[in-house]
Design brief:
Radius of gyration: 21 Å
Strand order of the largest sheet: 1-2
Number of strands: 2
Low-confidence stretches: 9-30, 370-402
Structural class: mainly alpha
Strand content: under 5%
Largest sheet: 2 strands, antiparallel
Mean pLDDT: 86
Shape: globular
Helix content: 40-55%
Length: 402
């Protein structure tokens, strides 16, 4: 996901023709912009600073951690006066101007993160107001204000709306909601790639299946953001024809496409131009979340099993956003991110920036790597105060609840 956002950012400034799916990244170049204190990761943050920070904070909150103040302050400091966010601002003290490349993806991601951390209602409201002000007439959003709407950008905005309790169906421009936009990008069942979503129509209006866009669109059509859990199983396993699909039909048809795509190998393949023939770990992680949210548990777990076996080196090389994606995939299928193929995604992520904290009561139920354990030493303390007998009963009770 984070690599896809980098590609989208480059596209926005004319380096690429369109946003490309995530792939296993090569070694990170030396940062062109220094990595400031509070920001997770060590690679150049120019194109993904806000994105990777937002995913990190969301993942930490999902695990029950309270992100470090320095990490949250870094993110809030990136916001422009009008509420928007750019991918990264090296000098946040300077005012944003017409040259500041603000975008919907970074803004929507920051909304989800700041809402999750709590205590930032004013910043969230300003960011949401800005997003609503740049909604396109088709009901969707493009990467930059005024650019043509696309599935990925529209989906991350839907996620921000849903995360803050707003109904995406009620956010309209010229009578159209983001769900109307998603329906126009859903490929009819009887066409090539039926059930999938396109990133956006080509110049002739033709839709081409895009697995990355489909994963984003499925989750959004279900009214979910970055965080999703296993949903209700769909009524049908295959693509169901509909003249104008409802959000639920968009999600189920997209889910059927994704389930078929990972049925054999458990993963998606990279389709980025010029990339070697290799698995697409980032989009597979997004697909796990989408499949789980759509109630396709078996397919979601198959894809997650592949990631658990193979995605560790990719995450270590790619950085915090990759670890966050895998944590959110684990959460979606009910897996344990503290034991991911013999390593801890939680410890690995937290080591890349300011250490988050966990309240004392929460520490009794979760180890630092996210696994459950009995509060043995806490029980011993109780024994010293209330007697061995009472302490034993309390310890036993905690073990039964763990």
């Amino acid at each position: 996901m984070n690599v896809r956002r980098n590609a989208a950012a480059l596209a926005a400034i004319g380096v690429l023709a369109a946003a490309a799916p995530a792939v296993a990244a090569g070694p990170s170049p030396s940062p062109k912009a220094s990595v400031p204190a509070g920001l997770y990761g060590t690679s150049d943050p120019t194109y993904d600073g806000v994105w990777r920070q937002s995913l990190t904070l969301v993942a930490q909150r999902t695990l029950g951690y309270h992100p470090a103040t320095a990490a949250v302050d870094w993110l809030t400091g990136q916001q422009c006066a009008n509420g928007s966010f750019a991918a990264f601002r090296a000098t946040p003290a300077a005012s944003c101007d017409a040259k500041t490349m603000v975008d919907t993806n970074s803004t929507a991601a920051a909304i989800q993160a700041l809402h999750a951390t709590g205590g930032h209602d004013a910043a969230v409201t300003k960011a949401m107001d800005w997003l609503k002000s740049v909604q396109n007439k088709d009901g969707g959003w493009g990467y930059n204000p005024g650019s043509p709407s696309d599935t990925n950008s529209t989906s991350v905005v839907i996620g921000a709306l849903a995360a803050t309790g707003a109904d995406p169906a009620g956010v309209r421009k010229d009578g159209k909601s983001p769900y109307d936009a998603l329906a126009t990008w859903s490929i009819p069942c009887d066409q090539d790639g039926g059930g999938a979503l396109a990133y956006q129509p080509d110049k002739k209006g033709k839709l081409a299946a895009n697995a990355d866009a489909t994963a984003a669109g499925v989750t959004a059509a279900l009214g979910k953001g970055f965080v999703a859990q296993t949903g209700k199983a769909p009524a049908a396993d295959a693509c169901a024809k509909a003249g104008r699909p409802t959000p639920a039909q968009v999600a189920d048809n997209g889910g059927a496409y994704l389930a078929a795509a990972v049925a054999k190998s458990g993963h998606l393949m990279s389709v980025m131009p010029g990339a070697t023939d290799q698995p697409d770990y980032g989009n597979t992680a997004d697909t796990v979340v989408a499949l789980a949210a759509d109630g396709r548990t078996a397919a979601a777990k198959k894809a997650y099993a592949f990631l658990e076996k193979s995605a560790g080196p990719w995450a270590a090389q790619t950085g915090p956003a990759a670890y966050a994606q895998l944590i959110l995939a684990a959460h979606a299928v009910g897996a344990q991110p503290g034991d991911f193929g013999g390593t801890s995604l939680v410890t690995s992520l937290n080591a890349l920036g300011p250490e988050p904290r966990m309240q004392a009561a929460e520490k009794q139920a979760k180890a630092s790597d996210g696994t459950s354990h009995a509060g043995v030493w806490w029980s011993v303390g109780i024994c010293l105060v209330a007697g061995i007998g009472i302490g034993f009963l309390l310890s036993t009770r905690k073990k039964q609840q763990s």
